[in-house]
Design a protein that fits this description.
This protein is mainly alpha-helical and 233 residues long. The protein is built from 7 helices and no strands. The protein has one domain (16-227). Helices cover 79% and strands 0% of the residues. Helix 5 packs antiparallel against helix 6 (176-198). The relative contact order is 0.19.
Length: 233
């Protein structure tokens, strides 16, 4: 019997860029749509609504990029410090580090003899890589990339925020709130389903997750807008 090649699909390789992209697009839709609905509910003019919407889009995209860059850079700094510390420990106490690696494999279920054999072979092949992967849990898939996170977040936020802005631009003042709300919930549903599909997760759960919070945000800002109806000119 012939065995075909392994055609299994694994989605973990998409974690880095997908997290930033989904977070950015979701935040762009929710925050900008909520801003538009809140300002419109306060009795603002069409021009005031559009100024607020575009300002929110630009500020939000910059904020997402800066926030992701700073947070992921902090993670990257921690990873680099741990890796450097591990490199020094390997130089100072190679045998001790080999025993430590063997203990990790024993804790995962290998016999003592086999754990030591595996540790010995891996240390001969790539001692630093083995410890980075199995002791520190740092791999190429999980390694922080600040620039990538910032770029994906800014672009995806801009795309997400642009959708309710376009709807608001082409809507009459009387229809801005219902049209932006309905369109944004629809966009969120598509985003949630698409993200779940790309990640190999349950599509309906992904849709429910993002639309629930989107509806909550729109309702909250609309309430605040009606509460402080100031008829902004």
């Amino acid at each position: 019997m012939m065995h075909q090649g392994n055609n299994e699909k694994h989605y973990v390789t998409r974690i880095g860029w997908m997290r930033a992209a989904v977070l950015g697009a979701n935040d762009g839709i929710v925050s900008t749509a909520s801003l538009i609905v809140g300002v419109a509910a306060a009795g603002a003019s069409q021009s005031a609504i559009m100024i607020a919407a575009v300002a929110g889009l630009v500020a939000g995209a910059m904020s997402m990029a800066a926030g992701e860059y700073v947070s992921v850079s902090s993670q990257s700094d921690i990873e680099k410090a741990d890796l450097e510390r591990e490199r020094k420990e390997l130089e100072d106490d190679f045998e001790g580090e080999q025993l430590e690696l063997a203990k990790i494999y024993q804790d995962r279920g290998l016999s003592e003899k086999l754990a030591h054999q595996v540790a010995d072979e891996l240390m001969k092949h790539d001692a630093f890589g083995a410890h980075a992967r199995d002791e520190l849990h740092i791999t190429e898939l999980t390694e922080a990339n600040p620039i990538q996170a910032a770029v994906y977040s800014a672009i995806s936020f801009t795309i997400g925020a642009g959708l309710p802005v376009i709807i608001a631009y082409f809507s009459s003042l009387e229809l801005i709130i219902p049209l932006v709300s309905i369109a944004s919930i629809l966009f969120l549903g598509i985003l949630g389903g698409l993200a779940a599909y790309v990640g190999g997760a349950n599509i309906w759960k992904g849709i429910y997750r993002v639309t629930f919070w989107g509806i909550a945000a729109l309702a909250a800002t609309a309430f605040i807008g009606y509460l402080f109806d100031v008829a902004i000119a």
